[in-house]
Amino acid sequence: MPLIRAFWGVGALNESNIVYIGQKPIMNYVLAVVKRFGAGNTDLIIQARGKSISKAVDVALISVDRSGGELALGDINIHTEVLPGLDGSPQNVSSIRIGMRRP
User: How far apart are CA 92 and CA 44, in angstroms?
Assistant: First the structure.
């Protein structure tokens, strides 16, 4: 399992500390964030592509608001990934990574 360096330069994250945002309801992902921090993790990344980017932002903000000051946002990284389209041609897809940590 590859290690991913935390955006803010503290510690390293592995794949189990990344919450991938998809089509499920927002509160499912908020619960996943809370569970991962509750298990003793201090760093976490929320990652989404395309239409799920706005949901990732909502998950991060709801998690911080409901934590009562126990969680903080880290760096936010946006970029474009090139993925194969349905016809095989390359397609540009926007992507976001939102770092979260327990201060």
Answer: 26
Amino acid, res. 29: Y
Each residue's pLDDT tens digit, 23-56? 999 999 999 999 999 888 899 999 999 999 999 9
Q: Tokens 């980017």 appear where?
A: 53
CATH superfamily, domain 4-101, is Alba-like domain (3.30.110.20)
pTM score above 0.90: no
Bin 45: left if φ > 0, else alpha if -120 < ψ < 50, else beta.
beta
CA separation (Å) from 33 to 13, 81, 91? 14, 24, 30
Instruction: Please check whether residue 65 is in contact with residue 35, taking contact to mean a CB–CB distance below 8 angstroms.
Output: no
Ordered strands of the 18-20 beta sheet: 18-20, 43-49, 90-101, 72-84
Strands (E) across 50-89 are located at 72-84
